[in-house]
Amino acid sequence: MKNYKYLLLVLMYSLFLELVAQERPPINIFSPVDYSAASQNWSISQSENRYIYAANNKGLLEYNGAKWNLYESPNEAKIRVVQVIDDLIYTGGYHDFGFWKKDNFGVLNYTSLAQKLEVNFLEDEEFWSILALDNSIIFQSLDRIHIYDKKTKAYNLVSFEHKITGMFKSGSNFYFQSLNNGLFRIERGGAKLVSDNVLFKENKIVKIYDYDGILLILTQDNGFYTLDKGGPTSWNISAKDILQNVSVFSSIKLRDNSYVLGTISDGIIHLSPEGDVKRKIAQANGLSNNTVLSIYEDLDNNIWLGLDNGINCINLNSPYSVYFDKTGRIGSVYTSAVYNNKLYLGTNQGLFCRSLNSNDDFQFIEATQGQVWFLKVIDNSLFCGHNNGTFIINEEKAVKISNVPGTWQIKQIPNISTELIQGNYDGLHILHKKNGQWQLRNKINGFDISSRFFEFSRKNKIFVSHEYKGVYELQLSSDLSNVISFKQDTLLDKGLNSSLIKHKNRLLYSNRKGVFLYNLENNTFKKDSLYSVLINDKTFTSAKLISEIGTNILWSFSSRGVHYLATSNLSGEQKVFTVPFPESIRKDVVGYESVTQIKDQQYLLGSTTGYVILDLNKIIDNEHVIKINQVAVNTISDNDSVKLMDKTKRSELKNSENNIKLSYSISEFLKTQQPEYRYKLEGMYDNWSDWTTNGSVLFENLPHGNYTFLVDGRVGNQSTLNKATYSFQIERPWFLTNLALGVYVLGVLLFSLFMHNVYKRYYRKQRERLIQRKTREFELKESENKQQLMRFKNDKLKEDIDNKNRELGVSTMNLIKKNEFLSLIKGELEKAEDTNSIKQVLKIIDRNLNNNDDWNLFQEAFNNADKDFLKKIKSVHPILTSNDLRLCAYLRLNLSSKEIAPLLNISPRSVEVKRYRLRKKMGLPHESSLTDYILET
Questions:
Q1: DSSP type of residue 792
Q2: Which of 690, 811, 865, 888 could be a cystine partner for 804, CB 3.0 to 4.6 Å?
Q3: With contact defined as beta carbons under 8 Å apart, do 462 and 474 qualify?
């Protein structure tokens, strides 16, 4: 018993390793979260417009390539089966069967045939299969078979006294199985026994196929059997033992006559038409679940799997085969090589190998733990550049020939067959072949920079590229032992993930800005227009170029795909081809991309999770059509209320219905080629939008007007055959309708008439007011002129007074000067000893000092300047004498006592006495200023 368990464990583990080691097609995985429904999917079908339909526990699922839609069953029951026949989608479930039809609004509408035909169901009757022949649609439950003629609308019922475990179609015949009873055929509305062999009584039949005129019957647990008149015979195929150990739940025969079997716990098994296992795919190597409830082949030969937990789409005819290292045992593949009919993988975890074209597990080669940077066959030996040194690989053994760490790559030296040059972390080294064995000869001294990329430009001259430091040109000694000189090429930009290679004996340097070709004559690199097509700055991921010597193909990588330069079969010219394979799916080891030819047009591309096999022969350009699926509008006031529009005709929308959402799709289901869309709205945006993977667009708050929406699509490099269009008009707002415009025109006319009368009255009154205002202005002007004239006269008078005052001041100053001068002369004369002789002169002087004419002249000038002062002061103080008035006049002129003294021919002291007496006559208080009083009078 223990041995049996051990053998079973070994068998299961071997099967697991075999699954993990397989290369499989790409798989599109849709989880219940993606399609927003239940996990179980019992049946799948496809319509003529390429939409996918799935029978789900929550209802009918529809997938158009861009979006999943769920239509819940009317009776809220699980839908167990779906079958597209012509333009109708037939479904069956608990106590109901009928069909769905899409209307012009892009919505599926359900018609229950069971209700229409008034079917009386048995207890818990549920439908599991739908088949068609000519006009007959056959619905099978576990209890009965219902036949509906869609042309005549006739309805027939095939009853059976036992449970019906399955119904099948082969050619034009319909079969059903009843466990414990056998296999039956429907004839003339009844059941006819085909075989009551114990095999069919005790083993559930999964499917029946036509095989060279006889029946090929697949059982759940015992594999295939053929059935002829002699009874059932086991189909003797290589997969017979495998089928004995799995439980098959679903199956389909593909168009290429191969078979796909869906199991309950082991995923799918793909058999060739002869019954050989082509591949096994389970959860361990790609599926999202091991229980396969249904299988369907679509129009593009993709295999759809309805799983117990989700939906998967296997791109069976994809040019890509994926090796997915789910366990992480292999790691990221840096390099690969084919040698002696074995495939070698150099990864971050070591070197692995297995026989070419087998599903055997990869074997680890001892002593190669760590990063493997380089694999290449040189001189009929497989060289391995490793983090720990350099190895030569012989079958599954590694022989170390150099301990210098970090061997990036190894190259042959031109015209020297016994020596190789290798680039390491610390520079360049020479390998030498001695006695048939390769060994390290020497390091090339004088250059210690890491040399991952290097190429000979001419004898003993070599270029070395370093991502962070740039490109160096080295001159080597003739014995390759020293670097005589080196210089950096300052004209080339250094850059991350740049590379330096030779392709067809041409030296190429590549970085983000393009590919530069080396010119041997002038020793410079110049950007080459053809090679630079391989590098696109907008989709840049790496500038690494790979030259495949066997095919003369030059490879590059971008975010959108893989590109290669090759000779066109049509024109014979060099041309850049693009393989649509996004970096997000291929998962490059960026900067360490690798391409290795496996055979013919098959190439191995390393990735972070294993590798991908690309078959260029399988690349075909399919024709794609883009469709507008739905047009939905809503209003500004109610964004939650959505109104669907007829997408087959031009729509006229209310002005408030100016939020419009358009959904569109390309029914393409390749994992490696996701459809992309661009659009424009003529009437608003006349330029195309950027490419996007979003299958819908929303335009909000559109103004009134006429619009035409256009959407274009592409899948990889292939554009769609058409551009889908939809035209609509948004009405003008109510205030811009024709009626409103007419009202506006009438209103404008009435208003214009009213305003004409208003303005007429206004201008009449305005004219009257203007005349009155002008009259007042003339009167005011005349008054202003008079006032101006009076001001001129006053100014003239003021000027005259000012002149008089100046004359008065001048005369006063003259009198003061004259009297001072005479007083001075008199004083000098009085000092003379002989006064008798000058008495007459003194008299004349005294007469001139006391001359009343001067006073009279002054008084006249003073009265002209200040007419009323003397009269006014006299009237106030009648007791003042003429001498007092004279003193007051001088004080009015604000003269000091010193200035007054000469005028009165007295001393300043006498002037002070006179001032004192004048104060007493005027009766001024002691604290009052006499001068201020006189100036203020």
A1: H
A2: 865
A3: yes
Q: How confident is the model at residue 159 (pLDDT cuts 50, 70, 90)?
A: confident
Rounded to whole angstroms, the Cα distance separating 515 from 504 reads: 15
Hey, is 272 helix, strand or coil? coil
For 384-434, the pLDDT digits (tens) are: 999 999 999 998 999 999 999 999 999 999 999 999 999 999 999 999 999
Separation of alpha carbons 641 and 635, rounded Å: 8
What is the DSSP code string of 446-510? Answer: T--S--SEEEEEETTEEEEEETTTEEEEEEE-TTSSBEEEEEE-TTSPP-TT-EEEEETTEEEEE
> Torsions phi, psi of 276, nearest 5?
-90, 145
CB contact burial 254-280 (16+ within 10 A = b; e otherwise): beeebbbbbbbebbbbbbeeebebebb
pLDDT at 19 over 60: no
Helix (H) or strand (E) holding 293: strand 292-297
396 exposure class (CB count in 10 Å sphere: 0-12, 13-18, 19+): middle
Q: Give DSSP secondary structure letters for 811-827.
A: HHHHHHHHHHHHHHHHH
| Reported pTM | 0.77
Cβ proximity of 83 and 42 under 8 Å: no
Assign 3-class secondary structure to 227-255. EECCEEEECCCCCHHHHHCCCEEEEEECC
- DSSP-assigned letters across all residues of 137-195: EEEEESSEEEEEETTT--EEEEE-SS---EEEEETTEEEEEETTTEEEEEETTEEEEEE
User: Which residue(s) pair with 343 in the sheet?
Assistant: 338, 354
Contacts of 22 (CB under 8 A, 6+ apart): 279, 280, 281, 285, 323, 359
- Starting at the edge strand that comes first in sequence, how are the strands of the sheet with 27-30 ordered? 27-30, 310-314, 303-307, 292-297
Residue 409: its pLDDT value, please? Answer: 96
CA distances from 573 to 303, 528, 530, 570, 576 (A): 38, 16, 11, 8, 10
Q: pLDDT (tens digit, 9 = 90+) per residue, 219-269?
A: 999 999 999 988 999 999 999 999 999 999 999 999 999 999 999 999 999
Which is it for the CA torsion 845, 851, 854, 855, positive or negative?
positive
If you average pLDDT over residues 804-820, what whole number do you get?
A: 62
Residue type, 244: Q
* 726 against 793, higher pLDDT: 726
* Mean pLDDT of all residues in 543-552: 91
Secondary structure of residue 313 in the 3-state scheme: strand
Its sign, for the CA torsion 856, 860, 861, 865, is positive
Give the span between the Cα atoms of 27 and 282, in whole angstroms: 11
